[in-house]
Amino acid sequence: MKVSDLGKITGLTLVQSDYDDLPIVGGYTSDLLSDVMANAGDAGVLITIQAHKNTIAVCNLLDISALVICNGRETDEEFLTIAKAERKAVYSTELNQFQVSVLIGNSL
Q1: H/E element holding 39?
Q2: Is 47 exposed, middle or buried, given 0-12, 13-18 or 19+ CB atoms closer than 10 A?
Q3: pTM of this prediction?
Q4: DSSP 8-state class, residue 32
């Protein structure tokens, strides 16, 4: 699976499209960024409700290529601008983190 394949998953909408289409071998679901730093490894995709610049910074530390922002959380312009500069795909969804985790897990 590649980052672009996330767009084929029902309920996910691409909101930041300037990204590197890298392979996704796994994912990590968490809203606590220190937990993500400690446990996500090179997950490929982060499933979270955290849509702020620190989330992008954590993704850079771990080479996470894509984020899925759940529960209909808003993504502001600053967040999307930083994601674009760092070439991170951002998807949004009304689904919750469990639902997204299952959908992505079943697609790997």
Answers
A1: helix 33-39
A2: buried
A3: 0.95
A4: -
Q: Please state, in angstroms and rounded to a whole number, the distance separating the CA atoms of residues 101 and 77.
A: 26
CB 40, CB 32: distance < 8 Å: no
How far is Cα 52 from Cα 25, in angstroms, rounded to an integer?
Answer: 24
pLDDT digits (tens, 9 = 90+) for 20-40: 999 999 999 999 999 999 999
17: left (phi over 0), alpha (psi -120 to 50) or beta: alpha
d(CA 84, CA 21): 13
Distance CA 37, CA 61 (A): 8
**Region of residue 62 (phi > 0: left; psi between -120 and 50: alpha; otherwise: beta):** alpha
Distance CA 83, CA 56 (A): 6
Token pair recorded at residue 69? 């922002």
